Amino acid sequence: MTSTETPNSDVIQLNSADLMRILQSGGINLENMDFMNMDPGLAQQIQQLRQTQQTSDPNLNPAAVRQQRPRPSTSRQPSRGTQAVGPYVEIVEQPKARGLRFRYECEGRSAGSIPGENSTPERKIFPSIKIHNYNGPAVIVVSCVTKDEPYKPHPHNLVGKDCKKGVCTLRIRDTSTVSFPHLGIQCAKKKDHRGQNIDLNVVRLCFQVFLPDEQGKITRIVQPVVSQAIHDKKALNDLVICRVDKTSGKSKGGDEVFLLCEKINRDDVRVRFFEEREGQIIWEAFGDFGQNDVHRQYAIVFKTPPYSNQYIQQPVEVEMQLQRSSDLEGSDPIKFTYQPEDPDPDRIMEKRKRKAANLNFLESGGSQVVTQETLKQRLKLKATRTSAANRGKQEPMIKEEDLSKNEIAQNY
């Protein structure tokens, strides 16, 4: 909004007292607030409020969320059935949840850029927000917050263009949609935050928008919004199935399968079987294995679970994938086929039929059919020949020269 424009009647104008009430409720992150374009009187009062909070409780984080304080919104737009009054912020392009590596300052290189959720190698997209019901200058502050509610400032820093002291501050003019192509995440040292209940492998982005009045003084604050969680790539390896020794098994389960994969955490992995129909999961089960069945974090030996219907008459194709128990993140699934139960697994009936077929042919080429009585006699004759042959092997053979020696001995 420029100095010549009339203020929007739907926008709530805040004076010093109103702003102080919002600040005292804990709804604004005092640590990340930009004071450069703020009314000097308000800035002084805010600084005094911060000092009062720190004096009353030295261990209290001024930006921590308190009971009954307004929480940053994670929704993209007002709830259904309600009409938005005044400006509000929508995240039109979420940051990609996985794929970015958080880097330490000592690595001496760029921390990279946080890609958008729909970004591809051919078409790069970055996190973006849109300010509704407003068109004019504004100050946007982006910072890292913890993954769980109540959201608190995260030890990690944002680095890149327009970033200073771990916070990105961007001033815009006459635009409602803003993209952030130069945001990277820089790790804090783990040893500096031991004992704190903070997950250093996950962060969220908090977007705070401050609107100036006609004189350029910050008097209006839009409800902050928080992005989806961003996971550190080096902390969570991508789950990948490299090879399995079998892709089918019995419907009753229990088949042993050897699975080769990329590096996994043996305490946070399972083998998931599921069947999907029309976009809905209609069946799900998990392979049976223990920690000792995970070999050097690169192989798993497990037994397949039974299918929901163990009396199937036709093969059923399902999906098999690796899945983390902590965040339910899964690998790309592969096909696994459940086969109907075999009524003759030892092939006894097949052997009997084949043996009978062979005996139904005569030496002449099979022109004469053997009767039941003839078949019994042949089997008896075969058994007699076999017995005689075995006895012949057991009796010692007398050589001719031994026989001559015996006859000479008898003559003497």
UniProtKB/TrEMBL annotation:
<feature type="compositionally biased region" description="Basic and acidic residues">
    <location>
        <begin position="392"/>
        <end position="405"/>
    </location>
</feature>
<dbReference type="InterPro" id="IPR011539">
    <property type="entry name" value="RHD_DNA_bind_dom"/>
</dbReference>
<dbReference type="InterPro" id="IPR014756">
    <property type="entry name" value="Ig_E-set"/>
</dbReference>
<dbReference type="InterPro" id="IPR000451">
    <property type="entry name" value="NFkB/Dor"/>
</dbReference>
<dbReference type="InterPro" id="IPR008967">
    <property type="entry name" value="p53-like_TF_DNA-bd_sf"/>
</dbReference>
<dbReference type="InterPro" id="IPR033926">
    <property type="entry name" value="IPT_NFkappaB"/>
</dbReference>
<dbReference type="InterPro" id="IPR037059">
    <property type="entry name" value="RHD_DNA_bind_dom_sf"/>
</dbReference>
<dbReference type="InterPro" id="IPR013783">
    <property type="entry name" value="Ig-like_fold"/>
</dbReference>
<dbReference type="InterPro" id="IPR030492">
    <property type="entry name" value="RHD_CS"/>
</dbReference>
<feature type="region of interest" description="Disordered">
    <location>
        <begin position="381"/>
        <end position="412"/>
    </location>
</feature>
<dbReference type="Pfam" id="PF00554">
    <property type="entry name" value="RHD_DNA_bind"/>
</dbReference>
<dbReference type="Pfam" id="PF16179">
    <property type="entry name" value="RHD_dimer"/>
</dbReference>
<feature type="compositionally biased region" description="Low complexity">
    <location>
        <begin position="66"/>
        <end position="80"/>
    </location>
</feature>
<dbReference type="InterPro" id="IPR002909">
    <property type="entry name" value="IPT_dom"/>
</dbReference>
<feature type="region of interest" description="Disordered">
    <location>
        <begin position="327"/>
        <end position="347"/>
    </location>
</feature>
<feature type="domain" description="RHD">
    <location>
        <begin position="84"/>
        <end position="237"/>
    </location>
</feature>
<feature type="region of interest" description="Disordered">
    <location>
        <begin position="48"/>
        <end position="88"/>
    </location>
</feature>
<dbReference type="InterPro" id="IPR032397">
    <property type="entry name" value="RHD_dimer"/>
</dbReference>
<protein>
    <submittedName>
        <fullName>DORS-like protein</fullName>
    </submittedName>
</protein>
